[in-house]
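hey m, so remember when u said the tokens were messed up on ur end? i reran from scratch. heres the input so u can diff it against urs
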Amino acid sequence: MDIKDDILSRAYISLFVIIGICLFIIGKAAFIQQSQGKYWRNLNETLHQKTDTIIAERGTIFSEDGKMLSTSIPEFDIYIDFAAEGLRAEKGKKFYKNIDSLSIELNDLFGDYTAMEYRKILVGEYKKKTRYFQFKKHINYTEFKALNTFHLVKLGRNTSGFIVEVKNRRLNPYGNLAFRTIGLARDSFKVGLELSYDSLLKGISGTRTVRYIAGGVAVPVEDAIETETQNGKDIVTTIDVLTQEITENALHEMLFKNQAQYGCAVVMETKTGKIKAIANLGLDSAALLKSFNEKSEYREIKNYALYATEPGSTFKLATMITLLDDGKIKTTTPVDLQGGLWQFAPNATVTDAEAHGRGLVSAEEAFELSSNVGMAKMIWNNYANNPSAYINKLHSLRMDTVSGIDLVGERKPIFHKPGTRGWERTTLPWMAHGYNVSVTPLQTLTLYNAVANNGKMMKPYLVSSVRNEGVTVKEFQPTVLNEKICNDSALAAVRKCMIGVCHSSFGTAKKLFLNNPYLVAGKTGTSFVVDNKIRYSDKIYQSSFAGFFPADNPQYTCIVIVVNKASSPMHFGAEVAGPVFKEIADRLYTTYVKNSRSNQDIKYKNDAEAVSYNGYKEDAKYVLNKVNVKYQDNAGLASDWVATNINSKALQFNTLNTQKQSMPQLKGMNLKDAVFLCEEMGLKVVAKGKGKVKDQSIIEGAKISFGQVINIGLN
């Protein structure tokens, strides 16, 4: 055999070996595909599947009057499996039969693509046999409901290939209203009631099997839910939406007017301790550094009602209770104010906030004048040798203890005690008038409410009940913290002193409540603010007012705290916090208190005297002409909106103020006119009841802003 034949034989052998190997591989591939294909496909699916958690639907937070303050709304992610067996059956007969109609419907619903563009996208993905095409994300329930009626989609998942994944998004329907108190429900950041009651609201999560596709998107596997979810429970708060809005609007107006940094206002139901409103408004750090002209820059940034600060003169109530209950003084006990200046020590002088030049006055008058000198002298004269007795009394009043409200984050008060590092010779007289001690507005409110409630101290709380699918499963009852904070004699005396603050000739709030139709008991407060960044020398003032009304039968207790800027035009408690308190008190008295009192004084009038109509003039003229009632049009062409009154001759039309910058009088209007007028001004209307308007949450003449919510009560 020559070399050529040897080479050829080897080549043929190699060729036959290669052909044999190829035939083996082809045969093996055919065997695997035909005999083991189902097994390997299932294994591939298993490798791309895992058990995922199904988050339970979070419970809803309601106001006491049944309005939703925080709730979850469903959102839907839509995928399409273009390899679905039903979609590809009979060479895609159903797909091509419905694609044109479906494309037109999708264009009508979403409007982001034309019908031709939708058709091109869907046909293209169909030809590529895309398994899980991400079609739409975050569509709302209305869009989802409409989508289910469309051609092809309505045939079901197996036929259409449309796959739905449901998610929930948290929504606060009232926007900024009590926003910080209600809280946020983000996974990484919860505050307020959303945090405090998270274990009830979040429910119990379930599990499901999902398949991961390109891009890491998890698509649920049909009929593979392993454990069911248990949806979260609902909680019903003590908050009243109208009271909250009244409180927030009053605070907002003053903050903007005085160019203040931040403020809070809290309203408590006297007999129960229920928090009916809690408003916290402040400027963010960027707005603090500039001159601002927009009310919208005030937002609910922090819950200032939970922060401890030096309270100033509102703390004098605790001092006065201590002196009277321990029998150290009577309201008639004389005290020398020394013109408002007392040199306590060589480097320590107690000074009254306002120069008054008074000398010898009674203890009651010293309280009404809010004299720092008077309070400091009385405490020093009676407790200098035993300061622990004063501290122990403050402890019995729970001034060194958190209020216990059902919100996470309440700060502990700061109190110094004799013998501790923070105690100095000046501590006792300075504590007497609200310095060298820090308490939260809620603590102060709790004490004032106890005085209003005949000495019974109630725990403040925000949640009244828990519901599961509409059924109440737990109720929270009022909790008594202290049955009697002091003896009856001392209680009557301090209430008299507080009424004097608002109505006597000495009172610091006498101008504010001059000729007021109901009695108010309260106390003004003005103090310097000091913290890590602010010193006393910066002259940043905190203005405060705390009190209750009506003083002869207390229904509500309220505290207002405003922290101003150095440039703020006003800083005294009676001129900054006091007007906010009065606005809240006036509205609540008119809306709730006055109407709930005995109707024995009601005098019934003739029907003709009760004729009242506010609204669209042409509608009124049409009705009056039909029933042949004479009227006198004093408005003329000046306005299409009129208010009516009646004199001895005829019904009169007078011009109704409808300037867009200020709130008109809606009382007497029908709902149609009230809604039309408010929406024309950019307001969002929430109406309750039937008939004509009897109450509005934004008072007549108040400045309004676009998007502001107004609550309307009908009779």
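this time it looks ok to me. Confidence is low (pLDDT under 50) at residues 598-610. if urs says something different then somethings off w ur setup not the seq
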